[in-house]
Design a protein that fits this description.
The complex is a heterodimer of chains A (117) and B (109). By secondary structure, chain A is an all-beta fold. In chain A, 0% of the residues lie in helices and 55% in strands. Chain A is built from no helices and eleven strands. In chain A, a hairpin with a 6-residue loop joins β4 and β5. The N and C termini of chain A lie far apart (33 Å). Helix content of chain B is 0%, strand content 60%. In chain B, the strands form two sheets. In chain B, strands 2, 4, 5, 9, 10 and 11 form a six-stranded mixed sheet that branches. In chain B, strands 1-3-8-7-6 form a five-stranded antiparallel sheet, with no helix packed on it. In chain B, a hairpin with a 5-residue loop joins β4 and β5. The termini of chain B are far apart. Classes of the chains: A mainly beta (117), B mainly beta (109). At the A-B interface, β4, β5, β9 and β10 of A face β4, β5, β9 and β10 of B.
Chain lengths: 117, 109
């Protein structure tokens, strides 16, 4: 079983649909992240959860809504998306060391490729 | 904010060749990581290397934090090395990783 698992791997949705992306980590880490990767752009950090509390919301539109029910699970709820939201969404986890404000070593899932029609 | 620049942007090699990828960053960092994104999109952690040199098989990395750069060496490249290589830095006083734009490597038999 891989360390970080994402489902679904592929998702096609209309602009009026509501769907969710799921991420699960089996590494015992205390922080989880959502990243967005669009064509020809650097990876963009969307959300950070540390000890199940959201610590970063990187100016992400409200049509993306994260949820972290426990330290092993992270969701990204999607509603009324736009075609420009089509991208690869990557989940990651790490063990954050608070004494040094270090993100720790990040481990990524395989990603969920989203297409918005 | 911090700038992370990678070079070259694209690299084409024949199997067996060696290569060096570079990552420059504009400010002090807590840590630096190298990732390989395979053709299926998955990001694989290669090195966690805030400073010094590490080796893992045909790959090695060196980070000179005082001069704000890191190098990734790939020796005897194989077609499976193809993909995009990213460096990512964790600036001081933040809890987020900033990614460079990547180096796209294609290795041909």
């Amino acid at each position: 079983e891989t360390g970080v698992t994402q489902t679904p791997r592929h998702l096609v949705m209309g602009m009026t649909n509501k769907k969710s992306l799921k991420c699960e980590q089996h590494l015992g880490h205390n922080a989880m992240y959502w990243y967005k990767q669009s064509a020809k752009k650097p990876l963009e950090l969307m959300f950070v959860y540390s000890l199940e509390e959201r610590v970063e919301n990187n100016s992400v539109p409200s049509r993306f809504s994260p949820e972290c029910p426990n330290s092993s699970h992270l969701f990204l709820h999607l509603h009324t998306l736009q075609p420009e939201d089509s991208a690869l969404y990557l989940c990651a986890s790490s063990q954050v060391f608070f004494s040094g404000s270090d993100t720790g070593e990040l481990f990524f899932g395989e990603g969920s490729r989203l297409t918005v029609l | 904010g911090i700038q992370v620049e990678q070079s070259p942007p694209d690299l084409i090699l024949q199997e067996g060749a060696n290569s060096t990828l570079r990552c420059n960053f504009s400010d002090s960092v807590n840590n630096l990581q190298w990732f390989h994104q395979n053709p299926w999109g998955q990001l694989i952690n290669l090195f966690y290397i805030p400073s010094g040199t590490k080796q893992n098989g045909r790959l090695s990395a060196t980070t000179v934090a005082t001069e704000r750069y890191s190098l990734l060496y790939i020796s005897s490249s194989q077609t499976t090395d193809s993909g995009v290589y990213f460096c990512a830095v964790d600036p001081w006083n933040t809890d987020k990783l900033i990614f460079g734009t990547g180096t796209r490597l294609q290795v041909f038999p």
